[in-house]
Fold this sequence. Notes:
Layout: E1 6-10, H1 14-26, E2 30-34, H2 37-47, E3 53-56, H3 67-76, E4 82-85, H4 92-100, E5 105-107, H5 113-124, E6 137-138, E7 142-147, E8 150-160, E9 163-167, E10 177-182, E11 191-201, E12 205-213, H6 215-228
Amino acid sequence: MTDQKTVIIADDSAFVRDRFANAVLAAGHRAISVKTAVELLARIRADLKQLDLLLIDLRLPNAGGVEIVRSVRRLDEGRLPILVFSGTIANAEEVRTLASLGVAGYVNEYSAVQHILPSIAPHLFPDNFNRRGSQRVVLGIPVAYHFGATIAAALTLNLSKGGLGIRTMSPLPPGSKVRARFRLPGSNDDIEAESRVAWSDRRVGMGLQFERVDAVAQTAIDEFVDQHFFSKSAPS
Length: 236
């Protein structure tokens, strides 16, 4: 990841704003922190052409629920990818409405700092990642991955229905073909996934996009992600 991106973090909690801003800055990108809906909309009006991603708390002061997203869409005409902090969603109806407004996904506002960039990387660099309509669950489980004649082991950063984030200081180049093997918490069965490297960053790790997974294994992944989406943390 080489191009500098600009991310707005909109949350009324300094704890959330600071952690996400620090993670974005540490990766060499620009972070703009705001704590009210008024500030958020003013920033969008002033800097729309320079923005790349919005992270939004639906419970911002001066706004109610999905109305803040509607207000953003009136300004950006659907151009900007938006991630919503999952803990601020009130009900399933809001999820459906957010989908109709083109929200790109959801992120756990309590994610550990080292998990933040992998969670948002697919939305910062969409051309290098196949964004299936899937939330990502923060998850630290062992994973073995084979590339050529080499086998390596690491821990996952997150799991979606379409791929894995892996923590490693020696990531492979984007496009590399990898066969990953891991086991979901509570399961006795290994999952093997033919994958390719979708993004790579030596400060974070790499993202694998699944290209071929057994149907039974894919169902297990889908069910696990759906089950743990709104949890504050997933088993590790």
